[in-house]
Amino acid sequence: MNKNESPTPRKRKKGLETTDRILRASAELFAANGFDAVSLTQIAEASGMRESSLYNHFSGKNAILEALFEIFRSSAPLFRPSPEELDRLLPHMTPEEIMKHILLYFGSHGDDFVERIAMVITNEKFKNPEAAAIYYACIVREPSAYYEALFEKMISRGMIRSLDARMFAEQYNYVSIALTKEYFMAKNGLADLESVVRYMVKTLRFFCSLMQAEA
Fold first, then answer.
1. pLDDT digits (tens, 9 = 90+) for 36-68
2. What is the DSSP letter of 39?
């Protein structure tokens, strides 16, 4: 094929599949061992290819990490119901039912690949400025703003008592972050999954009791 010719659809598909395989293998290795401890040789081996071939897809480890970061940025909002969906549910559900819906949505839309990237970001945020920025934007600030907007709507409808929506959202989200980490650990066999899920539901009910509307 002439160098100026575009790759065929079949070759493009194969290239995308190989790139995806590299990214998934890298996420698993980075999550388990840390970014610095993983070599390109290990990534190539886990991807089922020669190290020299890996350079056809990425210039190095940092480029792989950047690609993983971008995947997480675009995927994180998809793990919770859209504000529009919540607006449709508000007239028909109690606050506890809505919060459970959000929790179940996260569980049913979970993706092992993205969850591993979240673990990488959580671990690397202590030494990688970009990982820290993504952590605070996508895991701390955006979910807190999401819950704040939801609580404000519930207050305006008289569904929950009047409270500081921002503070309550931040507190709920910080607890959710800790429990989500335990959930990821349990999914990887490092904790009892059933116990973690039970505690997540128990915590949700506790927060719902705190914001219960006055009779």
1. 999 999 999 999 999 999 999 999 999 999 999
2. -
How far, in Å, CA of 57 to CA of 121, rounded? 22
pTM confidence score: 0.87
Q: How far is CA 135 from the centre of its chain?
A: 10
Cα(141)–Cα(30) distance, integer angstroms: 24
Residues 187 and 159 reside in one and the same domain: yes
Instruction: Please count the structural domains in the chain.
Output: 2
Is-contact 44 3, C-beta < 8 A? Answer: no
Alpha helices in the chain (DSSP H): 9-33, 40-47, 51-54, 61-75, 83-89, 95-108, 112-124, 129-134, 142-156, 165-187, 193-210
Structural domain of 43: 9-66
